[in-house]
Amino acid sequence: MRIHAIIVAAGSGIRAGGGIPKQYRAVAGRPLLRHAVQALAGHPGIHGVTVVINPECRALYDEAVAGIALPAPIAGGATRQASVLAGLEALSMDPPDIVLVHDAARAFVPASLIDGLLAAFADPAVDGACPALPQVDSLRRGADGRFSGSVDRDDLWRVQTPQAFRYPAIRAAHRAAAPGATDEVAIALDAGLNVAITPGDERAFKVTEPADFAKAAAMTAYSSRAASGFDVHRFGPGDHVWLCGIKVPHDAGLIGHSDADAGLHALTDALLGTIAAGDIGDHFPPSDDRWRGAASDQFLAHAASLVRDRGGIIDHVDITLICERPKVGPHRGAMRARIAAILGIGEDRVSVKATTTEKLGFTGRQEGIAAQAMASVRLPEAA
Predict the structure, then answer these.
(1) For 95-129, how does the pLDDT look when each residue is reduced to its tens digit (9 = 90+)?
(2) Could you list the residue range(s) of the whole structural domain that residue 48 is in?
(3) CB 130 within 8 A of CB 197
(4) 57-104 pLDDT per residue, tens
(5) Are 202 and 324 contained in the same domain?
(6) What is the pTM of this model?
């Protein structure tokens, strides 16, 4: 299933003050738009991000996303609705299966919110999904400085973005929609689409007023953590080994309950260590036959998802493979690319090295392979 995200950043954002559209104002040293792009582009389930902008702000846009690989921005329209439609039409030549529509002003969306959206599409009857929070405050009607009545809050929800839809359905609904819709859920419901409610998150709040920037800045206060991991597997019968997610031809295999990928096992433990979440055996016990022969990429992906669920950012990972053979050098590039893909980070944040023990110890006697790993992450101070 191919998934693409559209970020709407064509508004003027004047209520937030600051002299420039709010999506280009800095929070913790980075423009709000950059935070939003990185939150979506960094999610492993999202395969591409397109931003819709006001063409008059192209210089601000280029500065905000400098260094991030994105397709050319799309020119927005006079309204949010028109801008979203422009973004949807721009995907027509290579349409995704699912499209997420997101407001740049909701820049701090956690990965768990996106996970919930995408999971909703396991139900074939679902046309779309929207994160929302239940209304917990009492509501009253009022005019001229006086209350006039109450509002039942039982069925009321605070709607957030990104909102996700099957691409053909939402494009058709947008094309047929009357002007004036405030979001894609309104357009989808008018078109008779089935939209699921998925869990929202307070971190996905919308920066609207000047005071919201202080709230956003507080959310970007992070502490750095680092942890290490170590793993060993001995050689046995076989014609290949798995190392850092890559199948490497060899005159022996590695013995283990899963695929015995020492590199990914060590890195999984390192990531789990950054959030004090135990070790790989706690999450994937060798006594459980479900993991017999399992590919270790799912272990690493699980550890990364736990970090993201805590609001964490994976800054850098480093693996050292310790063996006399096979030679790691010819496969290093593929290993870095595979780990980067599993973690949803850039290859420039993945290091893979190899060394020997000068023929000392079990690795020197070519009895097996060892791996050690380090991972550094940033976690919100409140985590």
Answers:
(1) 999 999 999 999 999 999 999 999 999 999 999 99
(2) 3-219
(3) yes
(4) 999 999 999 988 899 999 999 999 999 999 999 999 999 999 999 999
(5) no
(6) 0.62
Cβ neighbours around 165 below 10 Å, total: 28
Q: What are phi and psi of 359, to 5 degrees?
A: 65, 20
Question: Which of 188, 219, 250 represents a domain boundary (last residue)?
Answer: 219
| Backbone φ, ψ for residue 245 (5° rounding) | 80, 5
Count: domains in the chain: 2
Model pLDDT, residue 18? 58
Strands (E), the chain: 3-9, 26-27, 30-31, 48-53, 74-75, 98-103, 128-134, 139-143, 146-151, 157-159, 163-166, 195-199, 222-236, 240-243, 246-249, 253-254, 313-322, 350-355, 368-380
Last-in-domain residue among 219, 236, 263: 219
Within 13 Å, how many C-alpha atoms sit on residue 289's CB side?
A: 0
> How many whole angstroms separate alpha carbon 154 and alpha carbon 157?
9
Return the DSSP state at 162. -
How many residues would you count in the chain?
Answer: 383
